[in-house]
Amino acid sequence: MGSGVLTMHVLAIDQGTSSTKAMVVDDAGTVLAIAEVSVDVVAGAGGSVEVSPDDLLESVLTSGRQAVAGAGVRIEAIGLANQGETILAWDRATGAPQSAGIVWQDRRSVDICDQLRADGFAGRLKAITGLELDPYFIAPKVAWLRPQVGKDPVITTTDTWLLHHLTGAFCTDVATASRSLLLDLDQAAWSDEACAMFRLDPGELATIVANDHVIGETRAFSHDPTPICGTCVDQQAALFAESCITTGEAKCTYGSGAFLLASTGSKPTRSTNGLVGCVAWKVGGVTTWCLDGQVYTAGSAVTWLQHVGLITNATDIDGLVAAAEPGTETFVPGLAGLAAPFWKPSAKGAFTGLSLSTGRAELVAAVIEGLAASVAFLARAAGNDLGSPLTRLRVDGGLTRSTALLQMQADLAQLPIEVYPSPHATAHGVAAFARLGAGVGPYPAWRPAVVVEPSISADEADSRLSRWYAAASATLAL
After folding, report:
1. What tens digit of pLDDT does each residue of 350-368 get?
2. What are the backbone dihedrals phi and psi of residue 108, each rounded to the nearest 5 degrees, phi first?
3. Is residue 237 included in any domain, yes or no?
4. Do residues 200 and 306 both lie within one domain?
């Protein structure tokens, strides 16, 4: 169990895009109980993607209380993970929402990004923050929302609002702050210069805290006051859970999107290969940085397959992929734009290489290969930025149940794929932060549930990736 001597039960809450998961974890890292409450995300015209803040809060309270009741133990610490770049306006005095939640997939701030790029600010923003100028990140959405709600409400990420309801605090963790386009990456502090570019007042921003900081106490989940002492943005929490601590260790989470992160250790890094540089975490007073690449639609693409009737549910995928005839079908997962390394928020999804012999199985196989190819390019980009190729890729998330995806990922990335033994890496990561914040040692080391090795040659992988990249590049002008 490491250096810890206390018995500690941690309530870990992962407030994600489509659901909130809560689980109670014991000293061995064993999940004693888990609860999940779905959240309705509404995509509308003009690139809008919104969620009800009240639904987010209720999902946190309900899932947390259900998990605690199911575990039947006293919890000593709480960790809260958040979905990162989702924001809302709210009344600082009452906590009441003053807008819908603007989800990280929302594209309505693209004009703000285009104007800042035309004004010549994109390069300087990347130099300061490590991030690309894109609607995905926090500041463009804040700048877009401010005229809609007026000057009085505060506008923050959802973690700040949730923590305010639970403890009264007004803060955000440093990893979440590094997703804002407002943080000085080297100093891990708000940048006055970056704020000025978005016409935002740094004095109105939430206080930045470490990931093992004791935020405050809450009685929201039990009669006893319990400290919230671990907070983090979801992907960095998963990186921590999967022990990607040293430079070059990398993981990919397949959730609504797919997110590849690679640790750069004690070195803040600006990517020259289309990724972004972020703070991974700050624990024990020490900051760790990482590189990050994103595919906006992964699980969302599978949901789309269901909506258009190509599959009934995700369990259909492996059988259809196995039945697909080899062909030239290619899918570009630009259903919500393309992120790294293209950074084209207006890009569209596309099938190419279709023929009269193309059927349902071939279309589904193309979608899965398109996701794996996207991640393979991110892995290559990370290796290029680090100066040496990745040697393995750890993975988690619901889509890792698909053996077809795992094999395609190993093949196209030409890397062994190590599957994290739980689909809830983010929650395990924030539980670990909470444990450290409470002064207790780390969880035991973990072993992969499965290791998948490449089954094709590097030349074949290069050929398939070249075909996919050509298709993706052709969609950028659509």
Report:
1. 999 999 999 999 999 999 9
2. -70, -10
3. yes
4. no
